[in-house]
Amino acid sequence: MLEFQRLGEMEYTYNADVGLAYASPVRGVWNIVHIGTLVPQAHEIYVCPTSCLRGVVLTTAEMGAMDRLSTITVGEDNILAGDMEEALQRGTERIIAELPERPRAMLIFTSCIHHFLAVNYQRVYKALREKYPDIDFVDCYMDPIMRRTAPVVPSLWRQMHRLLKPGEKKKGQANLVGNCFRYGDHCDLTALLTGAGIEVLDVNTCRDYDEFLRMAASEVNFTFHNTAAAAAKDLKLRLGQEWIPMRPGYSYDEIDEDLRAAADFFGIAPPSAAEIARERALTEAAIAEARAAVGGTPLSLDYTAVDRPLELALFLLDHGFTVESVFVDVFTESREIFDRLQKRAPELKIYQSLGWNIRRMERGYPGKLVAIGQKSAYFKNTNYFVNIVENDGMYGYRGIRRLMALLAEAAAEEKPMRELVQIKGWGCGCA
User: Which end of the chain has a smaller Cβ tally under 10 Å, C or N?
Assistant: First the structure.
């Protein structure tokens, strides 16, 4: 069985995440430990069996953030004695007593075993809140058995923002929700809002817990990733904040529509026709420079770098680049994008990075190849690659120009790929 399929022979319903999976040594994508540390002055507690805790502790140690995390080990004795609730409460109380500084919030992660045994952890949280009214407790989950029906990352983004409490709204304040990276210099939305005097808050940029709590007063939440949808929906229900999803793609028309929607919400002027024309001209010039730098060198890209790898592949092909392959395990983009790309490039190779048979792949490419993303760089065994994950704070025309600059740089300069892709949670203070 081949480790890839040709796009022209595939169905839109493709999903490689079934049955036995292969875990590559590519570790740049953030996990729940990295994301949880974004809440300032908060402390994480993981309540799991020893085998589960090993990965958690190694991740935290690699980040240099052992002071931000504690563990409570669940053993066979707890199961036999039926004291899972008591162990959770006693363990948390001991951790609080031994911490050198009182945390403002505690994110407590229970695991699969708690669900199997129907542990009443909400009773424990109620008791903890009564005993420690100065600490905000929130229930979080590390249960990979639910990865298809209730994935852990969307669940965590939702639970983290449940620390925000109902209150009065502040005019002219907005949140960016569900981002591992700051959306600043390479984001059209933040440029539009801050240019009009709108205050933009994001857990990434909050200096302390009080500033994080101020996010509850915002009128609207903007999201860039599908993984943030659960948090945005929950905030709309609990706090009455509006939700405007931004589409992190490469369609100029969609960018303009999204920015108009944001401007309309606040009653500010959207980008004018002249400004849009200027942005498009600058972007096309940046694309031309990148195309000249890359030349005819083929490209490979993957879903760990950008949220919309198929749309990016189509965008690059339409702008004269050669795209050899895409690493993606499920098609989450629109049927329209799939159909257009399938018609445009039926020979495009689609690799299953989770597929069990990819372990037999002869990594490499006969000649030079430039990758966008860590998984494509690893499997194609190239040192010429754009080393980003999770869109890296890029959105809109500014985001496309930044990506083109990184692509030109990747084509010219080699990187130590094998070293870089093994760094867990790229950009989370561990690089």
Answer: N
